[in-house]
Amino acid sequence: MTTAIERMEKDAVEICRGLIRIDTTNYGGNKGAGELEAARYVAELFDEVGLGAQIYESAPGRANVVLRIPGSNPSLPALIVHGHLDVVPAIAEDWSVDPFGAEIIDGMIWGRGAVDMKNMDAMIIAAIRHLHREKISPRRDLIIAFFADEEAGGDYGSGWMVQNHPEVFAGAEEAISEVGGFSVDINGRRAYMLQTAEKGIAWLKLTAQGMAGHGSQINSDNAVTTLAGAVYRIGEYQWPLSYTKTTLSLLEQVAELTGLEFDQQNPQPLLEAMGNVSRFVGATLQNTANPSALQAGYKHNVIPGQAEALIDCRTLPDEHEATLEKLAELAGEGVELSMVHEQDSLEVPFAGALVDTMVKSLLDEDPDAIVLPYMLSGGTDNKWLATIGITGYGFAPLQLPAELDFTGMFHGVDERVPVDAIKFGVKVLENLMRSY
Question: What share of the chain is helix, strand, coil (3-state, %, to 5)?
Answer without folding.
Answer: 35, 25, 35
